[in-house]
TrEMBL record:
<feature type="domain" description="Tyr recombinase">
    <location>
        <begin position="92"/>
        <end position="262"/>
    </location>
</feature>
<dbReference type="Pfam" id="PF00589">
    <property type="entry name" value="Phage_integrase"/>
</dbReference>
<dbReference type="InterPro" id="IPR050090">
    <property type="entry name" value="Tyrosine_recombinase_XerCD"/>
</dbReference>
<protein>
    <submittedName>
        <fullName>Phage integrase family protein</fullName>
    </submittedName>
</protein>
<dbReference type="InterPro" id="IPR002104">
    <property type="entry name" value="Integrase_catalytic"/>
</dbReference>
<dbReference type="GO" id="GO:0003677">
    <property type="term" value="F:DNA binding"/>
</dbReference>
<dbReference type="InterPro" id="IPR013762">
    <property type="entry name" value="Integrase-like_cat_sf"/>
</dbReference>
<dbReference type="InterPro" id="IPR025269">
    <property type="entry name" value="SAM-like_dom"/>
</dbReference>
<dbReference type="GO" id="GO:0015074">
    <property type="term" value="P:DNA integration"/>
</dbReference>
<keyword id="KW-0233">DNA recombination</keyword>
<dbReference type="Pfam" id="PF13102">
    <property type="entry name" value="Phage_int_SAM_5"/>
</dbReference>
<dbReference type="GO" id="GO:0006310">
    <property type="term" value="P:DNA recombination"/>
</dbReference>
<feature type="region of interest" description="Disordered">
    <location>
        <begin position="269"/>
        <end position="302"/>
    </location>
</feature>
<dbReference type="InterPro" id="IPR011010">
    <property type="entry name" value="DNA_brk_join_enz"/>
</dbReference>
C-alpha cells in the first residue's frame, strides 16, 4: 500500500479520503504494475490469484476495524462492483512428495553449497512440517535431546503458537553440521531456494512443480497416512483448527478412491480378456463382412 501511495504521490492520504475510487485504483495497480520484491532481480511475475485475494482481505480488515472504532462511517470497499474485486480462488491441489520421491530427492548428490543446504532444509521440513519461516529461524537450542527422544520445540512465526514435534533419526541425519552461530540452516534468497528445489526435482525425474511449502504438505500427508488420526496430525502440524488439517485426510481419501478405481479397471480388463479367450477365433464372412466373434461377445453381455 505504501508503495502504491508513493507512486501516486499521496504518501500521507488519510483513511477518510481513501474512497471507492482509490480502492479501485489500488487493486488495478496491484494486479498490473506491482512487482514483488523477490522478483526485482529476476523476471518479473504478477501476483497469483491467491496472493491478490490475501492482500485485498488484509486491507478490508484494516478498514473494517476503522469502522468498528469510529474512525470511519462505512468501509468504501463494499461500494465496489463485483468485477472490481479479487474473488476467492478455488482450493488448489496440495502438491506433495511420496516416500519414494522424497528418498530420490534426498539421494541426489549436490555439490553446490547453496543447493545442498536447500536440499537438507527441505528434507528436514518434510519430516517435521516446518514452514520456511520457521526453518530460517530454527536454532540448535530449539532441539531438546534426551535418551529416549529428540523433540523440536518452537514458537511458530505464522501463528505465534508453541509447537513440539518429535524428531526421528532420519530427520537428524539430514541436518547440517553445527556452524559458528546457533542457527541450524543458512538458506539463500527465496528465489534461489525455489530454483534449487526445481533443479533437484528435475534431476531425479520428479515431474511436480514443487516449492518449499510442498515439504509441509508432504509431512501432513505422511503423518495422516501413518496414524490415520486427524487430531494427531493437527497437533503435529500446529494447526489451530481441524478445518486446515482435514485437507490432508481428503487428499488421502481421493488417492484411495483412485487406487480402487484403478483396481477395478485392472480386473475389468482381465475379465474381458478371459471372456475373449473363450470365444473361438473366426474370420469375417465375405457375405456380411461382419465379425461373428464380436457379435457373440456382445450378445453374451446383454
Amino acid at each position: 500500500m505504501s508503495e502504491f501511495l508513493a507512486n501516486k504521490r499521496r504518501p500521507h492520504i488519510t483513511l477518510r479520503k481513501f474512497d471507492k475510487a482509490w480502492f479501485k485504483a489500488f487493486f488495478l495497480w496491484l494486479k498490473n504494475d506491482y512487482v514483488p520484491q523477490k522478483y526485482v532481480r529476476v523476471e518479473a511475475k504478477p501476483l497469483c490469484e491467491g496472493s491478490l485475494h490475501n492482500v485485498q482481505q488484509r486491507i478490508v480488515t484494516v478498514f473494517n476495524k476503522a469502522v468498528k472504532f469510529g474512525k470511519l462511517k462505512a468501509n468504501p470497499f463494499y461500494q465496489l462492483e463485483k468485477s472490481d474485486i479479487f474473488p476467492k480462488p478455488k482450493a488448489s491441489h496440495k502438491q506433495y512428495l511420496t516416500p519414494d520421491e522424497l528418498k530420490r530427492f534426498m539421494a541426489s548428490d549436490e555439490r553446490s553449497p547453496g543447493v545442498a543446504e536447500t536440499q537438507r532444509a527441505f528434507g528436514f521440513a518434510c519430516l517435521t512440517g516446518l514452514r520456511i519461516s520457521d526453518i530460517k529461524a530454527l536454532r540448535w537450542s530449539d532441539i531438546k535431546r534426551n535418551k529416549e527422544t529428540n523433540t523440536l520445540v518452537i514458537v511458530q512465526k505464522k501463528t505465534k503458537a508453541l509447537n513440539a514435534v518429535p524428531i526421528g533419526n532420519t530427520a537428524l541425519s539430514w541436518m547440517p553440521p553445527k556452524g559458528d552461530d546457533d542457527f541450524v540452516f543458512h538458506l539463500p534468497a527465496k528465489a534461489n531456494v525455489d530454483a534449487a528445489l526445481k533443479r533437484i526435482a528435475k534431476k531425479v525425474d520428479i515431474e511436480k512443480n514443487i516449492s518449499f511449502h510442498c515439504a509441509r504438505h508432504t509431512f501432513g500427508i505422511l503423518v495422516q497416512a501413518v496414524t490415520g488420526n486427524i487430531e494427531t496430525t493437527k497437533k503435529l502440524m500446529g494447526h489451530k483448527s481441524l478445518k486446515s488439517t482435514a485437507i490432508y485426510a481428503d487428499v488421502l481419501t481421493n488417492e484411495k478412491v483412485k487406487a480402487v478405481d484403478n483396481t477395478k479397471k485392472a480386473f475389468r480388463g482381465r475379465k474381458q480378456r478371459e471372456e475373449n479367450k473363450q470365444i473361438p477365433r473366426t474370420k469375417r464372412t465375405a457375405a456380411t463382412n461382419t465379425h461373428p466373434r464380436r457379435i457373440t461377445f456382445l450378445q453374451d453381455n446383454k
